[in-house]
Amino acid sequence: MTSRSLTEALRETLALFDEAGSPRTTTELADDLGLGRRSTYERLERLVERDELETKRVGASARVWWRPPSARTDRPLGSGDWPVEAESLLAAALDRTDIGVFILDESFNVAWLNETAERYFDLDRERVLGRNKRRLVETDIAPAVDDATAFVDTVLATYDDNTYAERFECRVTAAEEREPRWLEHRSEPIETGAYAGGRIELYHDVTDRKQRASRERKLEQYERLVETVPDGVYAVDEDARFVAVNDGFCELTGYDRDELLGAHATTVHDAEITTRAESLAEEIATGERGSATIELDLQTDDGATVPCESRLAPFPLGETDGRCGVVRDVSDRIERERTLRRRIRQQEVVADLGQRALESRDLDELLADAADLLTTTLETDYSKALVLDRTADELQLRQGSGWDPNVVGTTTVSAVEDGSQAAYTLASGGPVLVDDLDSESRFSGPDLLTDHDVTSGISVIIGSNEDPWGVLGVHDTDHRAFSEHDVAFVQSVANVLATAIDRHDRERELKRQHEQLAALDALNDVVRDITDEAIDRSTREEIEQSVCEHLAATDSYLFAWIGDVDAADQTVNVRTEAGGVAEYLEGIAISIDPDDERSGGPTGRAVREREIQTMRDIRDDSRYDPWRTRLEEYGVRSSAAIPIVHEETIYGVLNVYADRAKAFEGRERAVLGQLGDVIGHAIAATERKRALMSDDVVELDFLIRDLLDKLDLDVPSAGRITLDHTVPIEDDEFLVYGSATSDAIDGLEALVETLPHWKAVTYRGGDAATRFELRLSEPPVLSTVASLGGSVESAVIEDGDYRMTIHVASGAEVRQVVNVVQDAYPTAELLKHRQLEQRRDTTDRGRHALTAVLTDRQRSALEAAYHAGYYEWPRDASGEEVAESLEIAPPTFNQHLRKAQRKVFDSLLSRSGRNRSTE
Questions:
Q1: What is the chain's mean pLDDT, rounded?
Q2: What is the pLDDT of residues 131-181, one digit of tens each?
Q3: Phi-psi region at 377: left, alpha or beta (left = phi > 0; alpha = psi -120 to 50)
Q4: Which of 71-80, 476-485, 665-674, 784-793 comes out lowest in average pLDDT?
Q5: What are the beta bridge partners of residue 64?
């Protein structure tokens, strides 16, 4: 069929192709025709069917078209208008083409055939010319055709029906042909000329086209298949040029399909990889290797590389062989492997640190090791372990890695302020990740981080959220996207540290308890020794010296000293010390004035509050700042100040020091408190004994003018009140017996209502003056005088003026008595202070003898009964009333009274009474 037999539309389309056979795309042709792609595609397909064009797929959906040389003949053979010479030339030319030509006359006899037809079907022209084509097909041509029956039937059918098969294909194998050939059969009528009424049969060699079509179909099938695969798939020809790529391969490399098709494999990887891949593919094709996988770095269009793994296979393309491969991006796998290696390394670090934690007893060394392991394992610039100081609401950088040398151990960050990442970590209770500190909105960076150009990091709590020990963190100057495994690793390290810290604290507590038990055992021995010796010591100084020496001699304490208060300047003076601490005490000034900073230590507080005071650890107690330097020189870590008190009288304060933190707690504290009571009791007993045995006394006369007026009592300052006898009872209470004139009763009752230590008054009857019993509770003056072994010799309130005479033993703490009186009555005037020689008569010796044989309760029962009028007739007070005053049961009172009477009678009437048991 010639171009003149084409439709106008097809001729218009064919005219777009040049003689050179240059390929054109569907899109280009559609643009030139001004048609859509589908309409253009349909025209092109029809031209291909008429052998005017050839086509080829490129990629998954693209196609190119070109005009082959054999399709550019304008005139049909046998048209009748060719000159003879021209026909001869044409026949000669046809002999040199790859088209087999048969010319049949109207009877289907072979009028002419060219050499190509002879070669295709292994024919001899001389034998074929003039023969009927029907018979020739059946006998001579059919043997060269693979499917001879179908071929014969198809050709003969056109003869029988006088039709023209425009196209059918057959596969022939001629004797001289080594390889089979595919021929396409077409026939057309001869309309004019010598052979008018006959036909021309053409056998085009379409082997290359069939192979191309086969390869294209294979590629199409290949591409349809591989487009369903997410991995990158490619095929290259024998020249290592891409003939197929799927979308996955394009996405992987970043190239478009059109850029890759026809491009060399070295576009996406180096020549060495290409050579290696070709070699492996050949080994697979020859059976030397079952399969092969090669690792390579694909080069993307932007110059980056993607680590990949390619599984290779040979890829036959018609008569030539290429190779194909499935390429998989292994970046994720490599990252997973890298992550797994990091995870394994992190687990190894945690295990190693856990072992170190079990073996180490040095917490700071363990913290430093952990900091180093964090920075090396996570490849960060810094790591830190912050310890929480709850008293100061701050965190101290205790150990770290990467920081400036002067930072660790000195720098602190706030534990509560919004600007601190560590504070935020404590408040949030969970791990905190920071990618970019500059853009962080939850908190701003503290100086510790900003001064070191920190950008990213992780921080976690060491310990529980409810009771944190501190914060562990890692930081980097670059932007880092830390993974969940990284966070878990830091938290695991923090957990190991928390366990070690907890164990360290338990061991330290066990050690402290062991030391405390040892100290307690030693202390109990000391208390027993002191108690025994206090009985034998004759002076206060001996008691105090013995106490200090016993305490300083134990392994539990460094030194001890006792001081008393100078009321004039409100400072504590050293009375005695032991343990070689004299130089320390010379430079120490301790005040009891609450407004003086030197009164904040245990000694000042013990004097003011009259309770034992302890300092748990000098390192953490700011109140010890005035004495810190001196105490650290002596290795002091803790101390206790024990007030020496007896019956509300404070004799001084005992100070004990230890090189252990938290030494004075629990039972040890309680025993030391009891020791203060023992010392106070021993000193009081010594003072009373000295007062009783001394022939000299100190007499103090005091006058308080207008007592009733100064107390703002709205009663007349008239009459006389005398306080004659004092009977001590339990719990620092006293019964005072006296008398009052009738015009002083109102004043007496007003004093009971006003003075806090005057609790109640009971009238017992009388003659000229009314006798009364006054109950006092913790009276400051009376308690102090009694504790010093002294006595109130007389106390009279007359016409509003209060006059009191006190006797204390020579050598007693007179200043203490004066201070107590003036504290209780600020307007008291000391009229006399003189030393007297006592003249002891029989009455005094009898009273002293009674004191020696009676217990305190027996003496109180006897004296209360006597002064209350129990022995009067008629009785001013019954036994029940006296018992009620003493706040004991009547049977108990009667028992004490009978025993006291018996001892008195024994002492007075029996020669052996002095040897009887005092019960």
A1: 80
A2: 888 888 888 888 888 877 888 888 888 787 777 755 777 788 765 555 788
A3: alpha
A4: 71-80
A5: 25, 56
3-state secondary structure 167-222: CEEEEECCCCCCCCEEEEEEEEECCCCCCCCCEEEEEEECHHHHHHHHHHHHHHHH
Q: What is the CB-side half-sphere exposure of residue 550 using CA atoms within 13 A?
A: 24
The secondary structure of 609-654, three-state, reads: HCCCEEECCHHHCHHHHHHHHHHHHCCCCEEEEEEEEECCEEEEEE
> Mind spelling out the 3-state secondary structure of 378-414?
HCCCEEEEEEEECCCCEEEEEEEECCCCCCCCCCEEE
The answer to whether residue 195 scores a pLDDT higher than 60 is yes
How distant, in Å, are the alpha carbons of 55, 58, 217, 464 from that of 62? 11, 5, 14, 66
For 544, 698, 726, 767, 826, the CA distances from 691, given in Å and listed in that order, are 19, 10, 17, 35, 27
Mean pLDDT of all residues in 825-842: 75
Classify 765 in phi/psi space as left (phi over 0), alpha (psi -120 to 50) or beta.
left
> Tell me: the pLDDT tens digits for 540-586?
888 888 888 888 888 888 889 898 887 667 888 888 888 877 777 77
* Packing angle, helices 363-378 and 484-536, rounded to 10: 170
What is the DSSP secondary structure assignment for residue 444, as one 8-state letter?
Answer: P
Please give the single-letter amino acid code of residue 148: A
Say which range, 241-245, 378-382, 618-622, 672-676, has the weakest mean pLDDT. 618-622
Query: 652-674 in b/e burial notation, b at 16+ Cβ within 10 A?
Result: bbbbbbbebbbbbeeebbebbbb
Instruction: Write b or e for each residue in 807-820: b if 16 or more Cβ atoms lie within 10 A of its Cβ, otherwise e.
Output: bbbbebbbebbbbb
Q: Which of 602, 594, 569 is CA-nearest to residue 819? A: 569
- Decide: 172 and 181 in contact? Cβ < 8 Å: yes
- CA 886, 890, 891, 896 torsion: positive or negative? positive
CA 443 – CA 453 distance, rounded (Å): 16
Name the residue type at position 640.
A
The 8-class DSSP code of residue 241 comes to B
Quote helix, strand, coil % in the chain, to nearest 5.
45, 25, 30
588 vs 198: CA distance, rounded Å: 143
Question: Hey, how many other C-beta atoms are within 10 angstroms of the C-beta on 895?
Answer: 15
879-908 pLDDT, tens digit each: 888 888 888 888 888 888 888 888 888 777
Cβ-based neighbours of 270, under 8 Å, separated by 6 or more: none
Look up tokens 């030197």; give the residue.
598
Which band of pLDDT confidence, cut at 50, 70 and 90, is reported for residue 491? Answer: very high
**Range from 419-428, 462-471, 729-738, 761-770 carrying the lowest mean pLDDT:** 761-770
Instruction: Give the angle subtended at the CA of 353 by the CAs of 352 and 355, to the nearest 5°.
Output: 65
Q: What angle do CA 519, 521, 523 make, to 5 degrees?
A: 65
Asked if residues 472 and 497 have their Cβ atoms less than 8 Å apart, the reply is yes
Burial of 531 (0-12, 13-18, 19+ CB in 10 A): middle
What is the identity of the amino acid at 440? E
Read off the pLDDT of residues 323-382 as tens digits, 9 standing for 90 and up. Answer: 888 898 888 888 888 888 888 998 888 999 889 888 888 888 889 999 999 999 999 999
Instruction: In whole angstroms, give the CA distance from residue 582 to residue 602.
Output: 19
Query: What size, in residues, is the chain?
Result: 919
Exposure string of 324-344, with b = 16+ CB inside 10 Å and e = fewer, is: bbbbbbbeeeeeeeeeeebbe
Task: Quote the pLDDT of residue 594.
Answer: 81
3 state DSSP class of 572: strand
Kind of pairing between the strands at 110-113 and 758-766: unpaired
